[in-house]
Amino acid sequence: MSLLELIAAADGRSLAVSAVACLDRCLPQPADGAEPDPLRPLRAVRADGREWDVRLGAARAAMAEREPADDVAEQVRKALAAAPGDFSADPLREWADACSLLALEVHRRFDTPGGAPGADGADGTDPLRRCRAGDPDGSGPLVTGELRRQIQILEILTEAAGTAGDGAALRRAVDLSTEGRRVLRAVMSRQARGRG
Question: Which positions ≥6 away from 100 have C-beta within 8 Å?
């Protein structure tokens, strides 16, 4: 299934965890003394969404205390502010879709430093839209890796939804996301050193 098909079919918890994972991968390295994991309260969301609004408030407060290191951190803050307080599939699907696109846009920016992040492909179509629909041709290695991670996370969460393996699936999704965050932060750091 394409990423868009997986988002369309996922349940509320899978969508929420996937969206949080997308934002988490984009967060830059925190400054010394800053909360290293401001989105942690949202990772342990229950299948029924109980305490979602409380957890969302805690994550927003942690992000508000953190100085935005750059425009990517500010975009993550805005995406978190746009998270629905209502834990139901439709608003979560819309939010997960926006977070998915943001994560791919950030990865594309570092695939092509200095390039126009919103540039259309040679045929006039948005390459990220094509990528999410199942056609990653022409995407750079960071975008391709991020697309693969998003698909894997949604597949793992959707497959285990409502089963005894739900907790293990959540841990696997967090591990995949952490790996992706390390990759992107390494690229960000390398490019910053190259400019400095």
Answer: 3, 7, 18, 19, 22, 132, 150
Tens of pLDDT, residue by residue over 26-51, are 988 877 777 788 999 998 788 888 99
Residue 62 · residue 141 · CB < 8 Å: no
- Distances in Å between the alpha carbon of 133 and those of 1, 3, 82, 188? 9, 6, 24, 27
pLDDT, one tens digit per residue, over 124-149 is: 458 899 999 999 888 899 999 999 99
pTM as predicted: 0.90
Task: Please answer whether residues 146 and 18 qualify as being in contact, where contact means their C-beta atoms are separated by less than 8 angstroms.
Answer: no
Which residue intervals of the chain are DSSP H helices? 3-9, 12-26, 40-43, 52-65, 71-81, 89-111, 127-132, 141-160, 166-195
